[in-house]
């Protein structure tokens, strides 16, 4: 406790709320998180309640850079150390065998646990301050993305405020505000929980850290998840969706849009094409998106939220480059967003 003077008063206040079993939303470099003390099942239950998330969907535990990973896990394979060395702090979550003393509320009843050390300075300060307040100096913050279940993740404090107005007004949730999330999509998730049983790394959720970056460190290609056993809520077919129906459209079909849009509807069209070359129609509003995957990821959730306020009947999204590592995560998110309306 003697080091608490190192922290901003807003950080200490937020850390104390977490220690009290309260919810605190905070910025990370990927998206904003909805945090609670990972070792307090009552606090963790409040996350599920606020999100409207089924209780068997496990949460990611966020830990500070100097944390002892062994505290949270029962075994740490070599691959985990290699990936942590390469990508922590940063947008990578590792699924590892859970230590028995960690309540299984946080892992949705599973005996594995998701762990991430974020790089965002505000997140790190909060995590350090929280761990310091714990009697044993070890503390982790369980935090899913700070959005209602199935909705678009928040990349700014304003998004969190609009997502949970009632919870914030009634004091159930407070928000530690920071800048906009630099990356803009959720962390890459790698499952290493069955390495000791001879099962290699599985890429559960693609993200900013790409498959080939992982392969370079692992020395082999991570496997893809067994589709028949979905264990990741973000891996449900429909997820990450705006309120306005979203549909993907091939580049070659953009010219047909004027004949597709009903006369009484207004559609937003996200495209890479030069807007001047596209057929104009009073029913179509074109928006240019970046041809750089990282910039696209940074902007997409904020753009979808903004379009949700504009009264469009549909958001048509030009299909993304396929078979390109850099676009795998965005393909994943937009396909799941579209699947919510199929
Ligand atoms: O970037 C991120 O990961 C953000 C920020 C806040 O850190 N968090 C995030 O959390 O995206 P959430 O709950 O929206 O997605 C976490 C995913 C879920 O799909 C969950 O099922 C999976 O991680 N997960 C967590 N623990 C797991 C476990 N033990 N086994 C399998 N999947 C797990
Ligand atoms: Mg989420």
From TrEMBL:
Cross-referenced InterPro entries: DHBP_synth_RibB-like_a/b_dom, Sua5-like_dom, Sua5/YwlC_C, Sua5_C, T(6)A37_SUA5, TC-AMP_synthase_SUA5
A biological process term (GO) from this entry: regulation of translational fidelity
UniProt subcellular location: Cytoplasm
Positions of L-threonine binding: 30, 62, 116, 143, 187
Keywords carried by this UniProt record: ATP-binding, Cytoplasm, Nucleotide-binding, Nucleotidyltransferase, Transferase, tRNA processing
Known EC number: 2.7.7.87
Superkingdom of the source species: Bacteria
Catalytic reaction equation(s): L-threonine + hydrogencarbonate + ATP = L-threonylcarbamoyladenylate + diphosphate + H2O
MF GO annotations: ATP binding; double-stranded RNA binding; L-threonylcarbamoyladenylate synthase; tRNA binding
Assigned GO CC terms: cytoplasm
Family membership noted in the UniProt record: Belongs to the SUA5 family.
PANTHER family to which the protein is assigned, alphabetical: SUA5 (PTHR17490), THREONYLCARBAMOYL-AMP SYNTHASE (PTHR17490:SF16)
Function, in words: Required for the formation of a threonylcarbamoyl group on adenosine at position 37 (t(6)A37) in tRNAs that read codons beginning with adenine.
Protein name: Threonylcarbamoyl-AMP synthase
């Amino acid at each position: 406790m003697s080091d608490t003077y190192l922290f901003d008063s807003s950080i200490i206040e937020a850390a104390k709320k977490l220690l009290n079993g309260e919810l605190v939303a905070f910025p990370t470099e990927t998206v904003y998180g909805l945090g609670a003390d990972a070792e307090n099942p009552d606090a963790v239950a409040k996350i599920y309640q606020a999100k409207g998330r089924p209780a068997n969907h496990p949460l990611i535990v966020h830990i500070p850079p100097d944390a002892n990973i062994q505290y949270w896990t029962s075994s740490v394979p070599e691959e985990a150390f290699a990936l942590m060395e390469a990508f922590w702090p940063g947008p990578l979550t590792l699924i590892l065998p859970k230590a028995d003393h960690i309540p299984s509320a946080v892992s949705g009843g599973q005996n594995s646990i998701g762990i991430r050390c974020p790089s965002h300075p505000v997140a790190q300060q909060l995590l350090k301050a929280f761990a310091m307040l714990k009697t044993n100096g070890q503390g982790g913050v369980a935090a899913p993305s700070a959005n209602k279940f199935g909705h678009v993740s928040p990349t700014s404090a304003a998004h969190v405020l609009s997502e949970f107005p009632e919870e914030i007004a009634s004091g159930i949730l407070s928000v530690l505000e920071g800048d906009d999330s630099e990356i803009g999509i959720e962390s890459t998730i790698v499952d290493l929980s069955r390495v000791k049983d001879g099962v290699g790394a599985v890429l559960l959720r693609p993200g900013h850290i790409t498959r080939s970056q992982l392969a370079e460190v692992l020395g082999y290609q991570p496997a893809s998840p067994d589709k028949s056993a979905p264990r990741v809520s973000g891996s449900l077919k429909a997820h990450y969706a705006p309120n306005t129906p979203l549909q993907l459209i091939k580049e070659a079909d953009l010219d047909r849009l004027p004949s597709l849009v009903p006369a009484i509807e207004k559609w937003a069209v996200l495209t890479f094409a030069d807007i001047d070359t596209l057929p104009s129609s009073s029913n179509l509003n074109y928006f240019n998106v970046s041809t750089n995957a990282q910039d696209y990821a940074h902007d997409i959730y904020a753009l979808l939220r903004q379009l949700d306020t504009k009264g469009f009947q549909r958001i048509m999204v030009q299909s993304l480059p396929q078979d390109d590592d850099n676009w795998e995560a965005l393909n994943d998110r937009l396909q799941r967003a579209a699947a919510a309306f199929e």
